[in-house]
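Notes, Module 5: Reading structure tokens.

Key idea: the token line is not a picture. It is a compressed description, and you learn to read it the same way you learned to read a sequence, by spotting repeated patterns. We will look at two proteins. The first is printed below with its tokens.
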Amino acid sequence: MSLSTPGRVLARATAVLALALGMATSTTGLLSGANAHALPVTQGSFGFSGDQGDYISGGQSYAYSTASQDRLNITSDSAHNAVHLSTDGANGDWWYLDLAAPSGKALAPGTYTGATRHPFNGPNEPGLDLSGNGRGCNTLTGEFTISDVEFGPQGYVKKLDATFEQHCEGGTAAARGEVHIDNPAPPAELGLGLAVALDGTASTLNGKATLHGTVSCNKPVKVDVSGNVTQVKKQKLIRGSFTTSVSCTPGAPTAWTATAVPTGDTPFQRGDVEVEGRATATDPDYAQPVTASETVAVHLKRA
């Protein structure tokens, strides 16, 4: 398919107003079970053209690519059932494309016929939706062909080669297009470890318990360490919580120290306590929280 890039079709403000008035709707961000963090496309292209009378294209042709400084972002849902592509053209155009297999199935190479508007397609129907520049279909029919697709973790799409055809509102006029994505191998997911040392101290001055340990990671991240401390002394339940933050770097464990303040009038004392520890950080590549936890018995000494 040979496509040419036109000037801006509609101003963004007009497009937003048109959407608000209900002229057309867009499905961006409506992938079922999708990870919200769309990742930028390193190398790829997207384009489509339409027949005269096709509402989405207006009978024109559009083409975008990373080589032309257009921005493409793509993500998949956790089950790899659907992909969502967003395009911000260097000329101000903006478009969305959803391609989805029938419910419960992962996208795979093949032709998907009888597609209806995603995410409102029936359980046995594939889903499709091309919209943008203030235009969208209320209802649609169409089909698409996946030539190649490869996923990574956390919604990462490494490769996608697909063509599609969409008809708005039962019309015969169609928009036809293609998308090609070729991303590098997906980054590793964040690995996080937490260790709580088996020794600590109980202050005779303020009754606080001081704990320590280490965290480990495979990427540089800020780690929030928190937890709860429980002790029973002379049939009295003593509880407190702690929190601290450390900067973790790969290669060696990073030390942390935190102080738990008793919630009541009874101080922490020498002896055993139960510590429920948690370490939390956000994966910098996938913008997803990762948590490690450990529950241990810690012996407190007087300090």
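Here is the second protein, with the sequence above and the tokens below, as before.
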Amino acid sequence: MLIVLPPSEGKSVPSRGKPLDLPGLSFPTLGPARESVLDALVGLCSGDPDGAARVLGLGGTQADLVALDARLRTAPTARADRVYAGVLYDALDVATLSAAAKRRAGSRLAVTSSLFGLVRPADRIPAYRLSGDTTLPGLGPVAGVWRDALGPAVTDALGDGLLVDLRSSTYAAFWRPPAELASRVATVRVLHEVDGRRQVVSHFNKATKGRIVRAVLEDGAAPRTPGRLADLLSDLGWKVELGEQTRKGTQLDVVVDQV
């Protein structure tokens, strides 16, 4: 099983730690693409700060994030599961998983990154600011860079298991599973139900996905089809509705009435 998560826009900035070792990250086939994006981002942020802020979509009070990106090659690093912050990662809370669940997280989780493509929880990375919809001067849209590079890395990591794709739409554009994998692809949508009406609410979506991943890691089961995953989530206490398989995979709707 491979569970692919979105990154968080907000990140915890390491105060100490070794600098970035790009060749030491997981998914080494992504090395050339990582170098290209890193060079473009550091180059942008080492020049005109105001111009860099405009490219990165930052406001006037966020100049510190431009400086952060300018120092990426020498900045302190920490485990990716400590750098990524926010609602999903707070709910997942890797640090408090059982020892067995932490081992499963190390082999089953991957985080989509606009800077690194994919990282494992234990990969040491610096905090950075680069949204998935950014176009970098001299390089182009970062989504296009990863669209050409991620496929082999994901399929190698997936093997013959189930891909649980929890990425947001921005990061789903980095790579879309081919039709031949459809029978082994599950996406999850969280619907908030109030008085019989359902809607997608960002906070509920992120928090529930984090709790789902945490529960699956603690349980230890490794379902191999979307249907088996739906059964597992039902057994773990969620209300799950299984959609029809399409050429993109199978969507599971998880219906919640509270966060």
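Summary for the second protein:
- The chain has ten helices and twelve strands.
- The chain has one domain: 2-256.
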